[in-house]
Specification:
Blueprint (H helix, E strand, L loop, with lengths): L5 H10 L1 H19 L5 H16 L2 H6 L7 E5 L2 H9 L4 E9 L2 E8 L17 E5 H6 L1 E5 L2 E4 H13 L9 H12 E6 L2 E6 L20 H15 L1 H14 L1
Antiparallel strand pairs: 1-4, 2-3, 2-5, 5-6, 7-8
Length: 249
Amino acid sequence: MPTPAPDQLAKLRADTLAAGAAFIDDLQHLRAMLAAEAPTQDAIRRASLALRRLFVDGELRRLAAPRIGRLHFDVPDNNPVYKAAAKEPFLFFLSGGVPAQGTSLRALSASRGKQRRVLAKDFDPDRTASVSLDGFLAQRVLCVNGSWISRDTLIKYAGEIAAGTHSGESAPPEQALIARVRDCASVAVEGDTVGLRLDTEATRKLPTQFAYNPAALDPALIELLAACRSLTQSADIKSLEATLTTELN
């Protein structure tokens, strides 16, 4: 794609400046929410709507294109997990990558059978990978019964829940899978101990708003918070934020 002329870039920047101001406010809110010991339901709802606007509605691309170009994000490196899952599917996997109650929630998994399974060869929970915006959205972050959920699907789902527009029982299969994860799995954090509750026979329920409960953390909420963390910590996002702040001042 040819590079726009300087006057075109200037117009693109001017046309997106108001959205840029909202973006800076969003980042400040997300950082405050992530720093809180227990994010409120209202804070999670606002974050869900912000992520949907930025990623699903394409606002982040429009902001970045005339200013810094392509965006990159550091994400948990799950490639060894995907290779292992191709040979033997996981009953449950949560990518995570965000702290809760002072404890890191990263790579929680469960497999069928009584024998304990090594998560994956060459897996390092602290290793990250740099990916494009498309790669960030496409990364698979949750798994139940061998079926995977991408970050993009999760953000769309959370945005619909926050806006009150989720279609419930008529939701598409990938979103119905998120609802199933929320029904059958939760993570408990007590001190340095992290516990996974998994009941694949759990009764199906109608989707509800996200709420932060360290005694029964919602896996989808954990991934939503992890997405917020990757967004706010991205070097490219910080550069875009600085550029917009200069334009606004």
